[in-house]
Specification:
The structure is a single chain. The protein is mainly alpha-helical and 53 residues long. The protein is built from two helices and no strands. It has helices at residues 2-10, 12-52. The chain is rod-shaped, with a radius of gyration of 23 Å. The model has no long low-confidence stretch (mean pLDDT 78).
Length: 53
């Protein structure tokens, strides 16, 4: 009984940590992609008038 309660108490924490870490990592990757695409689109938007002239 003590072992199962201790196991139930300890089990969610590493799983939650790994799941949270994976979510944070994937979120950071998605955010980095969005930032890169935003910078690229702004860069090309600024270069288009210069290229047109």
């Amino acid at each position: 009984m003590d072992f199962t309660s201790v196991a139930l108490e300890l089990t969610p924490y590493p799983l939650a940590r790994s799941a949270g870490g994976a979510l944070i990592a994937s979120g950071a990757v998605l955010l980095a992609r969005e930032m890169v695409s935003l910078v690229c689109s702004l860069w090309f938007a600024l270069l288009q008038p210069a290229a047109g002239e």
